[in-house]
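Amino acid chain
________________
===
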Amino acid sequence: MKNHLFLAFSMLLIYSCSEGIEVSQSSTADSSANSTSLDRDPFESNYKPLESDRTLVKSVNLYDGLGNEYSNFDVLFDNGIIEEIGKDIVDNNATIIDAKGKWLTPGLIDIHSHMGVYPAPGVRTSSDGNEATSPNTAEVWAEHSVWSQDPQFSLALKGGVTAFHVLPGSANLFGGRGATFKNIPRNIIHDMKFPGAPHSLKMACGENPKRVYGNRGSAPSTRMGNMAGYRKAWISAVDYQKRQNEYIKKSDEAKELVDPPRRNLELDTLAGVLSGEILVQNHCYRADEMANMIELSKEFDYKITAFHHAVEAYKIADLLADEGICGALWADWWGFKHEAYDMVPANIAIVDQARSGKGCAIVHSDDEVGIQHLNQEAAKALSAGLRAGYEISKARAIKWITSNPAKAAGILDQTGTIEIGKDADLVIWSKNPFSVYALAEYVFIDGAEAFVRGEKQTQPVTDFDLGIINPSDERASL
C-alpha cells in the first residue's frame, strides 16, 4: 500500500481526549527521531500474485460491473490482467474454460469487514477490532490486529469475495485506519495487502461513542459531545498540517537551523485525510447526523467517501448523490438499536437511483456470515427496489458489490470491473448470481485459480485448520 499519507515522512501523533488537544511531549507514540531509516514506506504491501495460466473463458454470460450485460462472450486474461473481451476469441496457447450457460462477474468486494480483527474462533484473546481506550484513537491501524490465519477469509473466498476492506470497530469518534486486502492465503498480513490501495480513517457518530464513554462518566456522553470531539481533533490536525508544510517548504539551509516538527501518530492520520491521501469511512445511521458530518467535512475541507450502515440514507439520498458520497448499506438489517429503527427495505435502491441514477450504493456485510453470500444480499436489495417501483437492472445492481465498493476503497483503477487492463479478479457462477441457487465455481485473483469448487487442490486452507480437522473433508461428515 502506498503510504503517501506520511506527508514527507513527518507526521504521527496522539490526541488524548482526557488531556484536550495538547500533544504530550512524553507520549510513547511520539517519536524522538523525526526521520525514518526505512528505504520504503512503513508496512507497505508485499503482495505477490499467485502463479497463473493464460486463460480463456468461453461463451459466458457476463455482468461487467459497469452496468452492462452480455451473452455468450469470451474473456481472455494472462499475467493477472484482462487482455481481451468479445466474441469468438481464439487463442491456442490458453487454457480453455467452457462456461456456456454460466455467468461471469468481477470479483466481489466487501467495503466493511472485520475479518482478521475479530477472527474465528470468536474468543476474547483475539478480539482486536476496537481500541476502546480513548474517543480518538486515529493512531491505530487495523492491519496491526489482523490475524492472517482467520478461517473466515477462505469462507468468504468461496462466496466469490476477492478483496475486502478491514476497518476498526465503532466504539470511538476516530477508530483508526482501515486497509484493503486481496483474499489469498498468506502467513504475513502485508503479503495480502492490496498494492496501491489507500488507507481509510474509520469515524463513528451516534450511539456507540457516546454510550461507550458516557458510561464511563467521560466525554462524549451526548451527540453534541461527539461533534465537539470531532471539531477539537480537526482543529489540532489543521495546525499540525500547517506546521509540517511550513517546515517542508523551508530551504535546506533554513532546515539546519530548526528542529523538524515532532511526528505524531494520531495527527498523522488526520492530516492524511486533510491532504486527500486517506479516505473517510464514516459509521453513521441517522439522516440528521450524516448531514452534520457533511457540514463538519466542509468546515475542515476534507471528503467523506462513504457512510456505513446508514439506515436512514434514503431520507437524504439526493444530498449524498450531490456530495459524491457512497452509502454502504445492509439489505435488511435494522431495529437492533434505537438509531437503526427508521429503516425501509428500498434503502439501497433509493440511494442508487438518487439524482437520476447518480447515487453510489454499496451492499456491505459487517458480518462474517453475510460476507459469504454478498450476491444474495444484493439480490434481496434489488428485489426490494423493484417492489418499490424502481426499474433497476441486474447489470446495474451488480455494481453494488463490485465497482462501487472498489470506488469507495480507492482501487477502482485496478479492479471491480471487467475491462481490458484491469486485474483479472473474476468469478464464474453456476447460475445467475442473483439466484439463491448460484454458487461460485471458479474464483480468480490476478488470473490465478484461488478457488475451484470440487477441486481439493484449490481449497484454501489456513494453518489454524491443519491438525484440527481434515480441511478437504465436509465438516458435516466429521
The chain has a mean pLDDT of 91. The chain has eleven helices and 16 strands. The radius of gyration is 23 Å.
